[in-house]
Design brief:
The protein is α/β, with parallel strands linked by helices and about 475 residues long. It is built from 15 helices and 17 strands. The strands form four sheets. A five-stranded parallel beta sheet has the order 2-1-3-4-5, with helices on both faces. Strands 9-8-10-11-12 form a five-stranded parallel beta sheet, with helices on both faces.
Length: about 475
């Protein structure tokens, strides 16, 4: 940890001075600081570096970074090219080793061949720019733009909330991360539906802001509450957790397919829509009526042509959405199910998929392991994050070797069991396999005379555990 400093800061702002030649960054930070203080109800200490000379920078900046509790990078192509911005990121990371203290807001995104320092490379940035469809390029919001103010308000809420967590003063009704379907009592009493607003492309940022603002003005709960993490695995888990709490899935669709990371089979837009459909969540989608379908890439056209898509003006869609979102959820309508992790060796994946399909029929969100991680460490991270997201876990002891099952259970004991996560071990026929010789308090072992009976027994137990 760094040495003692008399002056401490709530937030350190890191940026490339090239981006402030017109004063844009200074104006943004002045507005942002005002929003922080309004939300926190106190004066906020923000270090925003004026034009220091080289000697001042060398002597002061590293200490200022380490004396700050949170870090905000104003991203841009220039930010990726400056050694001092990389140094600031590294100093903060060395001090805290905590990515949740670090945020990015982009004046403009980096070019494809540019990247941020490793500590923030996987962060999803708050976009302080809009995509201009006419010129096919991006430009930053003007200081007076309402969209900029809306995004800064949201970012300020994230900073103030995280600082309150660090201070131990943030009150949250108890809700276990591994039990995402349990809502705080005050949320459950709100009339109307909980709406999950899908992540969209940057071209529809402004429309997304308008839709969220409309719903929130009517006191309708909108998810996600914060930006989703980047990277397919983390994104999928965070999205599925929100999906398990949503009554209505809403998606604004662009004629472009959008981002498709290398570790995801389909793009973000397609994945979200498919997950909502597979888990039987009521869905409303919108596309601009002016989109010429023949100009849409063929592998994206099917999504824009679904029966749940309204092709109309945005205002018409917003009014239809508002009516749907304000309808009360029927008292007898089951909430979307808990997330269940199904651990299976490659040799048992056919059975795992059958169990996953049965979970869907019984209102449970099933997650299977990554079949082809790039590295062993990626596979372990995927398992750990899957367990953190789940309400219960199942391991199938079918064709798998006893050593594989024992290794998975050992990993579970190190991670999931410590979180109080229940475990079910399902053994399909034949059942005369080598004994696992593992005894776990509260574990449920189910043997089935045939696969169908085994799946039914596992589903009954999972429904009980998820209740």
């Amino acid at each position: 940890m760094g040495g003692f400093l008399a002056e401490k800061y709530d937030l350190f702002v890191s940026y490339a001075h090239l981006d402030n030649q017109d004063g844009w960054v200074s104006h943004v930070i002045k507005l942002f600081k005002m929003m922080l203080e309004m939300k926190a109800g106190r004066e906020m200490s923000v270090f925003f570096d004026p034009q220091l000379n080289a000697n001042e920078r060398t002597s002061q900046i590293p200490q200022k970074v380490r004396a700050s509790r949170m870090f905000l990078a104003i991203g841009s192509p220039a930010y990726t090219q400056r050694p001092w911005t990389s140094r600031e990121v590294a100093e903060f990371w060395d001090e805290y080793q905590d990515s949740s203290r670090m945020l990015i807001a982009e004046r403009l995104p980096p070019n494809e061949w540019q990247s941020y320092p490793d500590a923030i490379a996987d962060h999803i940035a708050t976009r302080l720019y809009r995509y201009d469809d006419e010129i096919g390029d991006r430009h930053e919001y003007s200081i007076a733009d309402d969209s900029l103010k809306s995004k800064l308000h949201k970012l300020a809420s994230c900073v103030v909330e995280r600082l309150a967590e660090l201070d131990g003063t943030l009150y949250r009704p108890e809700r276990e991360r591994s039990n995402p379907q349990v809502l705080p009592e005050n949320i459950a009493q709100i009339d109307g539906k909980t709406v999950l607003l899908a992540q969209t492309t940057e071209a529809l940022d402004d429309e997304q802001i308008q839709v969220r603002a409309l719903l929130e003005q009517q006191d309708i709960r909108v998810l996600p509450e914060t930006e989703y993490p980047q990277g397919a695995g983390e994104f999928k888990e965070a999205f599925l957790m929100d999906l398990s709490r949503a009554d209505l899935f809403v998606q604004l669709l662009d004629r472009r397919k959008g981002r498709c990371p290398p570790d995801m089979d389909v793009g973000y837009q397609q994945f979200q829509a498919d997950a909502a459909r597979e888990n039987n969540v009521d869905t409303m989608q919108w596309r601009d009526q002016r989109i010429v379908m023949e100009e849409v890439p063929e592998d994206h056209r099917g999504l824009l042509d679904r029966e749940t898509v309204m092709a109309c003006g945005l205002e018409e869609f917003k009014q239809s959405l508002l009516k749907q979102a304000k309808k009360k959820v029927p008292a007898d309508k089951p909430k979307n199910g808990a997330v269940v992790f199904i651990g299976a060796d490659q040799s048992d994946f056919e059975l795992a998929r059958k169990l996953s399909a049965a979970c869907k029929e019984h209102n449970l969100v099933a997650m299977l392991p990554n079949e082809d991680p790039d590295r062993e460490s990626d596979g372990q991270r995927d398992l750990r994050e899957s367990l953190e997201t789940s309400k219960a876990t199942v391991y199938l002891y079918g064709n798998a070797k006893v050593d594989w099952v024992r290794a998975q259970v050992r990993f579970f004991i190190k991670t999931g069991w410590q979180m109080g996560l229940p475990i079910v071990i399902g053994t399909p026929p034949p059942t005369d396999k080598p004994k696992l010789n593992i005894s776990i308090p509260g574990a449920v072992e189910i043997e089935g005379e045939d696969e169908e009976q085994l799946i039914q027994s596992i589903i009954e137990k999972l429904s009980e555990l998820a209740a």
